[in-house]
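Please, structure for the following, as tokens.
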Amino acid sequence: MHTISLSHAETRSISIEATPAAVFAFVADPRNLPRWAPAFADAVRPAGERWIVTSGDTELPISVQASAERGTLDLLGGPDLNVGAFSRVLPNANGSEYLFTLFFPDGTPQEAVSAQMQVVEQELETVRELVEG
């Protein structure tokens, strides 16, 4: 019998007083990553169909998969492009809701998950401040 292995998912969201189009335009532009996710990206530059994210001495190629029609933005890395951050901008009354999901490998210590999700929560606050600004 085949067994499916699943990762642990954590999702956070934030309400933003701006249109979904405005929120999506901001988060879907990889050049804005250092502004709202500085723990992940010091700098970003295009490299063909991918982007190179620089963080300290590390460079990580990512694929940015964005659909304005669906409001989805996935920042994917790794050789199979199945690993990364998955997000969505949804309408919320006259504003927006920005959802952000990360997956953690089975066995990741809860302290590490909590620490990473605290970073995500700060990033979401920053997105709100910058878009509402």
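The chain is about 25% helix and 40% strand. The CA atoms of residues 14 and 106 lie 26 Å apart.
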